[in-house]
Design brief:
With 178 residues, this protein is mainly alpha-helical. The chain has 2 domains: 2-115, D-Maltodextrin-Binding Protein, domain 2; 140-176, no CATH class. Helix content is 44%, strand content 7%. The protein has 7 helices and 3 strands; from the N terminus they run αβαβαβαααα. It has helices at 2-25, 46-60, 75-82, 101-104, 112-115, 140-149, 164-176, and strands at 33-37, 64-68, 90-92. Strands 2-1-3 form a 3-stranded parallel sheet, with helices on both faces. α1 packs across α2 (46-60).
């Protein structure tokens, strides 16, 4: 965890240096920068975004604020950013789950490929499969045996339909045949 935090801090420092280089050409930021996180506070995307925003605020002497806009598997916040002027004051911090949002939420009026441009990879967030320590599943094999013997008996938590951890769970279930 310490090594990952150091790597994240160094990456944020490098991003700050790149922005300082661009700053010499044209003043930026000229106003508060909003980093929109399409997930709830405390999510795996929000935490590193908050760290990077704080680091950028300190290195650039400007305000970078976190704007949580959860809902629709990330679609609410993503659509909001897609509708903002391209003036460098609003950025989206999201996961790979954004690729499927238009398919799962067709009522949203945006296309991530057409309406958004990637800027930088911020971090790599691992996923894991966890159970309570009092669980009868001491191994993945035991969990899968139970799931196969009693279909529909087990559930898992995710950040919502279309979120990266929802899709990871669905892919795991499909590949495991449960």
């Amino acid at each position: 965890m310490r090594r990952r935090s150091l790597a994240l801090a160094l990456a944020a420092g490098g991003l700050g240096a790149a922005i300082n280089t661009a700053r010499a050409q044209e003043p930026w930021p000229v106003r508060v920068v909003r980093l929109v996180v399409p997930q709830a506070p405390g999510s795996p995307i929000e935490i590193p975004t908050r760290i990077i925003g704080d680091r950028l605020s300190r290195s650039l002497g400007a305000s970078f604020i976190i704007d949580n806009r959860p809902g629709a598997g990330g679609g609410i916040g993503s659509q909001h950013v897609a509708q903002q002027p391209a003036d460098g004051s609003v950025f989206l911090a999201t996961s790979a789950g954004i690729a499927i949002v238009p398919t799962l939420q067709p009522a949203l009026n945006f296309d991530p490929i057409r309406d958004l441009d990637p800027v930088s990879l911020m971090c790599d967030v691992p996923s894991g499969l966890l159970v309570r320590n009092a669980s009868p599943f001491a191994s993945l094999a035991a969990l899968l045996a139970h799931a196969r013997a009693r279909p529909g008996d087990l559930t898992y938590a995710s950040g919502g339909v279309g979120s990266a951890n929802h899709l990871a769970g669905a892919l795991f279930a499909a590949l495991a045949g449960v």
